[in-house]
Design goal:
heterotrimer, A mainly alpha (324), B alpha/beta (312), C alpha+beta (464), A: 324 residues, mainly alpha, ABC transporter involved in vitamin B12 uptake, BtuC, 14 helices, 2 strands, globular, C: 464 residues, alpha+beta, Immunoglobulin-like, 2 domains, four-stranded mixed beta sheet, four-stranded antiparallel beta sheet, elongated, disordered N terminus
C-alpha cells in the first residue's frame, strides 16, 4: 500500500499553490475581514493579474519587473472599474457585481477570437521564463523522499514565501495604523466613519485595490510553476479563498496563511485517502466519483466554519467579524 | 445647572417660523425631500443661532431626522440650499460636511463595536497623516500626532467618565455609555456645530443629568448645538431656542418658554407624551392635514433602521 | 433597503406592455421573413446557456464569407458518439457534446448547395476540453477538391458572426433574429421562474441565496429520474419536479435556514453558508449523477412552425407552463391572503409581525414555493437545452442579473429582468462571439447598476 500521499500532502505546506492561495486570501482579508467589502471576485483579480503577467511575458517579451508591474496595475485598474459603480451601494450589490465581473473576465479570455492573445481555453504556457532566468540556485534536485524539488521549483517557493511574509508584514502594519483604524471603522459602520469626516468611498476603493494587488501577485506565483489556465479562476476559486480566510480567521493576518496550509493539506490528504479507498474497494465509489468529493468537503466545511467558528482558528471569539 | 437669568436675544424681530437670527451659523432655504410622492421635508427658511443650544422638536414623522440627514450630506434633497458659516453645503458629501466643522451623531448609536473605546475616539481626530495609505506604512511619520490624539482622547474620555473603559471594546458599553462615547468621539473633530439626534433616547436616568451637563458644556466652550429630542424636560432645561417641525415644515420657532406655552403647540404636540399615538392628535395641529403617510414612513424608517442595527 | 413589491400593479402593467412589445417585434420579424425559402431549414438556433461543452460548426464560402445553410455535418467522438446536424440560416450550428474528448466534424459534401465548392479541410479535428463552449469547427468552401491548401478551418480568429451573414440573404438574417428572439423569450420565461424564488427569498429573509442554482438543478435531476429512469410520462416528470422541488425548498428551510435565523446569524454569513451549500450540493449531484450530460429525451420534431421559427413540443410546454405559473404567482401575490402577507413581510418584517402575520410561516411557504418554481424551471431547462449536475449553477449569475435588473426583492421586476436577460443572451450572439453571451448579460447588469442602482422597479435607497 502506497502511503507516499501523506508526504505529498505535507509538501502542501510549502507548495506554490498554498502560497498563492494564502496571498490571495490575505487580499480577501483586507477587503472582507478588515473593511467589510463582500468581494466575490477575488478570482477575477487573480485572472487579471495572471493574464497581465503571462501576456506581457510570453507574447510581448517584457522583462520580469515590467510584467509584474503590468499584473499589479491591471488588478488596480480592475478594482477601480468595479469600485466606481458598487462601492456606494449596499454590500450585496458589491458581491454580485464582483462575482459577475470575475466571470466576465473568464468568459472573455476564453473567447476563441482572442486566442492569439489569451490562448483561449488552453491558457498560456511558459510565463516562467523571465523568472527562472534570474534563478541563482544551482541546477539540481533538492529535498527528501518523495518531496523533491528542482532548482526552479525551489526558487519560486523561496521567492513566494518571502513575498508572502513581506505582504503579511505590510498588511499588519497597515492594520495597526490610523489607516487600518478607519477601514475597520468602515466595516463596523460606515456612516459613523463618514460622519467623522473620513472619505469612506476612497478608503473602500483603496482596500479593494490592495486586495486586488495581492491577488495579482498570488496569480503570478500560481502560474509560474505551472501554466495559466482560465478555468482555474472561476467562482469556485473565490469560494475556496473564502473558506481559507474564514478557516484561518477573517480578521487576522496569519489566518489566511495558516488557513491555506491546512486547506491544501486536508484536500491533498483526502484525495490520497480516497484514491486508496477506490483502489482497494473500501468504499463503493469509482475513481470518477472521487473528484467531486473534495468540493463537497469544502462546501460542508465552509458551512460549519461560518456557523460554529466564525472567528476561524486564529481569531478571538469576541473579535469575530460576524458573531453567530 | 441653574438657568441663566438674562438670556441673550437671538432673533431679529418677532419670533416665528423662519425668523432671522442675530448671528446665524447655519441658514437653510427651500430644502425639500420627498419619498415616493410623500413630502418628508419642506423647510422654507430656517436659521440656527450661533453659540446657542437649539432644540428641534416635533411629532414622529415630522421629518426631523430626515432634515438632519439632508443638512449633513447623508441624504440628498430634491431641492434647496444651505449655508454653514458662509460656505454653501448643498450637494457636499457627508465627510466634507464633517470636515467643515458640522458634525453629527445618530439616533441609533453608532459605536464601532469591535474597536476599542480609545480607537473609537482616535477615529474622530483630524490631521493624522497616518490615515493616508503610504503614510500609514511609516509609523515614525504619524507616531507623534498619534500621541497627541491619544492625549486629547483620554482627556475627553475622562471628562465623559469613560477613561476606565478606554481599552474595552465599544461593544461592551451600555446604551447610555455608547451615547456618551459617540458624543465624545464627535468632539474629537473639534466641531463648531454639533448636531445630536435624540441624545437622550435609551439613556438610563442616572446618566441623563451628566449628559445634560455635557451638552451645556459644549456651549460654554463656544460650540453651537442643534439637537433633536422628544424629552421635553431636557428641551426646557437646556435649550436656548426651540424649532418645531410638523409635516416636514417648520411650524413654530422661539424661546422655549414661549414656544412651549404656545397653546397650538401644546395642544398639538407637547400635551401628548411622545410615544402616544399621534394619529389621534393630527386633527388638532393647525397645519396638519394628512399625517398618516409621513407617520407610517417614519415608523418604517425607524423600525428598519433598528432592524438593520440588530442585524449587524 | 429597497422597498419590495409595492406598486407592483404598475410592474404588471409595464410587464404586459413589454410582453406586448416583444410579441409585436417577434410578429414583425416573422412577417417580414414569411417569404423565406422552404429549402432553408434553419434549425432553431440552439443557444446553450449552461456551461456545457459545445462545438460551434460554421460553414461559409471562402470567397465572400457568406454563410451556407442547410448543410449536414456529422459529429463523431468518444464513446461512439455520432450525431448529424444541419447548419442554420447563419451557416452555423452549435453542437452540444456529452463529454470532453476529441471530436471529428465531417461535412457531408453531398448536401452542399453548390457541388463545385468543397471544404478546404474535411473532416476537422476538434478537441473539446472541460467547460469549453463553442470550440470552433469552421469550414470554408473553396472551388475544387477537398485537398485544397491553406484552409484555415481551425482555430484562427474569425470575424463576428453578424458580419458573416450580413452579406447573405437578408431574409436569412430575419429568420435568425426571429429564432433568437423566440429562444430568448423561452429562456427568459424559464429564467423568470427561477428568479422569482431568489427575489422572494431575498425579500422575506434578506438572504442572497447562492444555492438557488442547486434548487434548479434538483428539479431537473428529479425530472430526469422520473422520466428517464422510471420512464414516467413527461407531464409526470414536470409535475414531479415541481412538487419535489417544493419539498426540497421546504426541507432546506427547516433543516438549515430556520435554525440559522433562530441563531441570529447575520446576512453576510448566511450568504457564505449558501455558497457552502451550493458547492456541497452541486458536487453531490456530480457524485451521484456523474459529470456527463444527461439527456431528457423528448420529441425533437417541430410541433409548431411560425414563419422561420420551429417550436419543439417541449418548447411549447415550457411556454405554456411558464406563462400559467407566472400568472398564478402574480395572482397569489396580489389577490390572496398569503400573497399579501408575503408582500407585507417583504416590505417590513417587523411591521408585518406586529400586525399579526406569522412571519416564519410565510418564510416557510416562500421557501417551498421558491423551491417548486426553481424545480420546475430546472426540468424545463433540461428539456429546453441541456441537463447536467451544474446546470443550475451555470445560470445562477443570469438569475441574479435578472433579479438585480428588476430591483432586488421585487418579484415582478425579476420577471421583466429575466425576459431582458433571456433576450440579451440570445440576441447578443448576433454581434458578439457566442461564448460571450453570458458576459454580455452580466455586463449590462453592471452598467444598469451604474445608472440605476435600485434596478428598474426598485425604489431609490434612502441613504446611500
Amino acid at each position: 500500500m502506497d502511503f507516499s500521499f501523506i508526504w505529498l500532502a505535507f509538501g502542501q505546506i510549502i507548495s506554490p499553490q498554498t502560497i498563492a492561495y494564502a496571498l490571495a486570501a490575505l487580499g480577501l482579508t483586507v477587503c472582507f475581514g478588515f473593511t467589510g467589502l463582500v468581494n466575490f471576485g477575488q478570482a477575477g483579480f487573480m485572472a487579471v493579474g495572471g493574464y497581465g503577467f503571462a501576456i506581457t511575458t510570453v507574447k510581448f517579451g517584457w522583462p520580469l519587473w515590467a510584467s509584474v508591474l503590468a499584473a499589479i496595475v491591471g488588478a488596480i485598474i480592475f478594482a477601480f472599474i468595479l469600485g466606481i459603480p458598487t462601492l456606494r451601494l449596499r454590500a450585496d450589490y458589491l458581491s454580485i457585481v464582483t462575482i459577475a465581473a470575475a466571470e466576465i473576465v473568464r468568459y472573455t479570455v476564453k473567447t476563441p477570437q482572442f486566442v492569439p492573445v489569451t490562448g483561449g481555453t488552453d491558457g498560456i504556457n511558459g510565463s516562467s521564463s523571465t523568472f527562472d532566468a534570474i534563478n541563482p540556485i544551482p541546477v539540481g534536485h533538492y529535498g527528501v523522499g518523495v518531496l523533491m524539488y528542482n532548482q526552479d521549483d525551489l526558487w519560486i517557493i523561496i521567492v513566494g514565501w518571502v513575498l508572502t511574509l513581506l505582504c503579511a508584514l505590510l498588511v499588519s502594519r497597515l492594520m495597526r495604523s490610523p489607516w487600518g483604524r478607519i477601514v475597520k471603522g468602515i466595516r463596523e459602520d460606515e456612516d459613523a466613519v463618514r460622519a467623522l469626516g473620513k472619505n469612506v468611498y476612497w478608503y473602500k476603493m483603496q482596500a479593494l485595490m490592495i486586495g486586488g494587488t495581492l491577488a495579482a501577485i498570488a496569480a503570478i506565483i500560481n502560474i509560474i510553476p505551472t501554466s495559466l489556465q482560465p478555468d482555474n479562476y472561476g467562482t469556485q476559486t473565490t469560494f475556496f479563498l473564502f473558506t481559507i480566510m474564514l478557516l484561518g480567521g477573517a480578521t487576522t493576518i496569519m489566518g489566511p496563511i495558516v488557513g491555506s496550509i491546512i486547506f491544501w493539506i486536508v484536500l491533498s490528504l483526502s484525495d490520497g485517502l480516497l484514491s486508496l479507498a477506490v483502489t482497494y474497494h473500501w468504499l463503493p465509489i469509482t475513481s470518477v466519483q472521487q473528484g467531486p468529493i473534495r468540493f463537497v468537503i469544502v462546501g460542508v466545511a465552509l458551512i460549519l466554519i461560518v456557523v460554529f467558528r466564525p472567528q476561524g482558528i486564529l481569531g478571538k471569539k469576541s473579535e469575530a467579524y460576524f458573531s453567530a | 445647572m441653574p438657568k441663566e437669568t438674562t438670556k441673550p436675544v437671538l432673533q431679529i424681530g418677532e419670533p416665528g417660523p423662519g425668523v432671522a437670527k442675530v448671528d446665524p451659523i447655519l441658514v437653510a432655504d427651500n430644502v425639500t425631500r420627498t419619498f415616493g410622492g410623500m413630502t418628508a421635508v419642506d423647510v422654507q427658511h430656517v436659521e440656527i443661532p450661533r453659540g446657542a443650544i437649539t432644540a428641534l422638536i416635533g411629532p414622529n414623522g415630522a421629518g426631523k431626522t430626515t432634515f438632519f440627514n439632508l443638512l449633513t450630506g447623508f441624504d440628498r434633497p430634491d431641492s434647496g440650499a444651505w449655508v454653514f458659516d458662509g460656505q454653501d453645503l448643498a450637494g457636499v458629501p457627508a465627510y466634507k460636511v464633517a470636515r467643515k466643522g458640522m458634525v453629527r451623531t445618530f439616533q441609533l448609536t453608532k459605536a464601532l463595536g469591535l474597536l476599542s473605546v480609545l480607537e473609537n475616539m482616535r477615529l474622530g481626530a483630524t490631521k493624522q497623516s497616518g490615515e493616508h495609505f503610504f503614510g500609514a506604512l511609516f509609523k515614525s511619520t504619524w507616531k507623534k500626532r498619534e500621541a497627541d490624539i491619544t492625549d486629547q482622547a483620554m482627556e475627553l474620555l475622562a471628562r465623559f467618565k469613560l477613561d476606565t473603559k478606554a481599552n474595552d471594546y465599544a461593544a461592551s458599553l451600555s446604551g447610555g455609555q455608547r451615547k456618551l462615547l459617540e458624543m465624545a468621539r464627535a468632539l474629537m473633530t473639534k466641531p463648531e456645530l454639533v448636531m445630536l439626534d435624540e441624545p437622550m433616547a435609551g439613556v438610563n436616568p442616572a446618566l441623563t443629568q451628566s449628559l445634560l451637563g455635557h451638552i451645556l458644556n459644549l456651549k460654554t466652550e463656544g460650540m453651537t448645538v442643534l439637537f433633536v429630542e422628544h424629552d421635553m424636560h431636557m428641551v426646557r432645561t437646556i435649550a436656548d431656542w426651540v424649532i418645531v417641525m410638523a409635516e416636514g415644515n417648520i411650524v413654530a420657532e422661539g424661546y422655549p418658554d414661549t414656544v412651549m406655552n404656545d397653546p397650538a403647540v401644546i395642544d398639538a404636540y407637547l400635551g401628548a407624551h411622545h410615544d402616544t399615538d399621534l394619529g389621534s392628535l393630527t386633527g388638532q395641529l393647525e397645519v396638519a392635514q394628512d399625517i398618516d403617510p409621513h407617520l407610517a414612513h417614519e415608523i418604517e424608517e425607524e423600525i428598519e433602521e433598528e432592524a438593520h442595527h440588530d442585524g449587524k | 433597503m429597497v422597498k419590495a413589491l409595492r406598486g407592483n400593479p404598475v410592474g404588471i402593467r409595464l410587464l404586459l406592455c413589454i410582453l406586448a412589445l416583444l410579441l409585436a417585434a417577434g410578429a414583425l420579424a416573422l412577417g417580414s421573413s414569411s417569404a423565406a425559402r422552404a429549402d432553408t431549414t434553419p434549425s432553431p438556433t440552439p443557444t446553450a446557456s449552461a456551461a456545457q461543452e459545445t462545438i460551434q460548426v460554421w460553414v461559409r464560402l471562402a470567397s465572400d464569407k457568406s454563410a451556407v445553410a442547410g448543410v449536414t455535418v456529422v459529429v463523431t467522438g468518444p464513446k461512439n458518439f455520432s450525431q448529424s446536424f444541419v447548419t442554420g440560416a447563419d451557416g452555423k450550428v452549435l453542437v452540444g457534446v456529452p463529454r470532453i474528448g476529441d471530436y471529428k466534424v465531417k461535412l457531408d459534401v453531398s448536401t452542399l448547395p453548390d457541388k463545385t465548392l468543397k471544404p478546404a479541410i474535411n473532416p476537422l479535428d476538434t478537441p473539446v476540453a472541460r467547460n469549453d463552449s463553442g470550440d470552433p469547427a469552421y469550414f470554408l468552401l473553396v472551388p475544387g477538391t477537398a485537398s485544397g491548401s491553406g484552409g484555415s478551418g481551425g482555430s484562427t480568429a474569425s470575424p463576428s458572426p453578424g458580419s458573416g451573414s450580413s452579406s447573405g440573404d437578408s431574409t436569412n438574417y430575419f429568420a435568425l433574429v426571429a429564432n433568437l428572439t423566440a429562444n430568448g423569450i423561452i429562456f427568459g420565461l424559464l429564467l423568470a421562474l427561477a428568479s422569482i424564488g431568489v427575489s422572494l427569498i431575498y425579500g422575506t429573509t434578506g438572504l442572497n441565496n447562492f444555492a438557488h442554482g442547486e434548487l434548479v438543478t434538483f428539479g431537473a435531476l428529479m425530472g430526469y429520474v422520473l422520466s428517464q429512469v422510471l420512464h414516467l410520462p413527461i407531464f409526470i416528470a414536470i409535475i414531479g419536479a415541481f412538487v419535489l422541488g417544493g419539498a426540497f425548498g421546504y426541507l432546506q428551510d427547516m433543516a438549515l435556514w430556520k435554525p440559522l435565523r433562530k441563531r441570529g446569524v447575520g446576512l453576510i454569513p448566511l450568504m457564505i453558508v449558501s455558497i457552502g451549500l451550493s458547492l456541497a450540493l452541486r458536487y453531490l449531484y456530480e457524485f451521484i449523477f456523474g459529470s456527463d450530460q444527461l439527456i431528457l429525451s423528448s420529441n425533437n420534431a417541430s410541433a409548431l412552425t411560425l414563419g422561420p421559427v420551429h417550436f419543439k413540443q417541449t418548447d411549447l410546454i415550457s411556454i405554456v407552463v411558464c406563462v400559467v405559473l407566472l400568472l398564478a404567482v402574480a395572482f397569489v401575490l396580489l389577490r390572496t391572503r398569503i400573497g399579501k402577507a408575503t408582500r407585507a413581510v417583504s416590505d417590513n418584517k417587523a411591521l408585518a409581525a406586529a400586525s399579526g402575520i406569522n412571519v416564519e410561516r410565510i418564510i416557510r411557504i416562500v421557501w417551498a414555493g421558491s423551491g417548486a418554481l426553481a424545480g420546475l424551471a430546472g426540468v424545463l431547462i433540461g428539456y429546453y437545452q441541456t441537463l447536467r449536475w451544474d446546470t443550475g449553477a451555470s445560470i445562477l449569475l443570469l438569475v441574479f442579473a435578472a433579479v438585480t435588473l428588476g430591483g432586488f426583492g421585487t418579484a415582478f421586476g425579476a420577471l421583466v429582468g429575466a425576459l431582458i436577460i433571456g433576450l440579451l443572451v440570445n440576441l447578443s450572439t448576433l454581434i458578439i462571439p457566442a461564448n460571450l453571451q453570458n458576459a454580455a448579460a452580466l455586463l449590462v447588469m453592471i452598467l444598469i447598476l451604474l445608472v440605476r442602482p435600485q434596478g428598474i422597479f426598485g425604489k431609490r435607497e434612502r441613504i446611500g
